[in-house]
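Notes, Module 5: Reading structure tokens.

Key idea: the token line is not a picture. It is a compressed description, and you learn to read it the same way you learned to read a sequence, by spotting repeated patterns. We will look at two proteins. The first is printed below with its tokens.
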Amino acid sequence: MKPWIKNSLFIFLFCLASSSLLAQKIEVNPAIQWRFVRSQSMNLVDGLWYDFEFPAEKGFDYALVINHTLDSAKLLLSIADLQGAHIFKKELIEIKPEIYSYFDVAHTSTYKMLINLSDGKNEIKKNQVNLSLIRRIKIR
């Protein structure tokens, strides 16, 4: 292969890699530097547990934001490392259409988030939910 083709291919791949790194840094609120880690829209069935794995770094504050359409929502949230040691557990009951839960992690690693969202009426139904996991540099 000719040297100028190799050099152009290298420059193209370098530009592609650097643009993908910049594309993942989406700012939610630039004033306080919240950035997206993960965002997903899905149907959650009442009473069922859902789990997600996400990478987390020490030195950051994390927030889980859940937008829902329920009249009142009961959220059970548990975060554990991949060995099963619990880092954070919380139970929230909210009337508002948004639920916020804040946490931080002790080590840079991959963690598992377990979520159970229900309306408390013991009816099996699907709930349209938007989940967003965001983070910012710890300010404490």
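Here is the second protein, with the sequence above and the tokens below, as before.
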Amino acid sequence: MIKKSICLMFLLLLAFQVSVFAAVNVGQRTGTLKITLTNGTVLTVAPGDPLPIIPDGANIEVIGGIANISVTGTSTVQVIAGGQVVNVAIGSSLNVSIEPTGTAVIGVTEGSAQIVTHSGATAIIDRGDQVRVGSGVVTPTGFDVVQGQVVLTQTDGTTTTHTPGTGVEGYQPPALPSVSEADTTVQTEETTADISPIAQ
């Protein structure tokens, strides 16, 4: 009985840890991602490379290709694409596609996401909505509505609804730390231990 209780407690603890660490997920992806962890560590993940565990509160910059990013539980993540920061809400999922011109199309597939503009207004992007950010948009450093309706709430509480073909002001985030400045090496016991054969 005691062994069963200990085993059950171990399994519950393991399930809790997996749910905590697997809260930010990257599904289908074809391009490079730059992941900035909450401690400032910057990881660059090339296509085909295994993904690290992405903790709550991380930043994920989609540099090329496509990526599906989702959050579960109470986790949040910031996605950066085409120079625009998008805050992904709890329990939400979005697709990001980087076009050859550098323009990014961001579409919410579940839940919602938020863009904070340079004036402090917030744009809510709901399921089915798509925006285009980056080069070639109507408003410099802003975004265009491609599909759906995006509600923009100003700091004074006034709201406006933007439909496809309209441009909205955006926010250019500060530059992220350079990958060359970050130590991305991983120390393991094998790399520091003497593994030469024992002399007979």
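Summary for the second protein:
- DSSP finds two helices and 16 strands in the chain.
- Residues 10-22, 186-196 have pLDDT under 50 and may be disordered.
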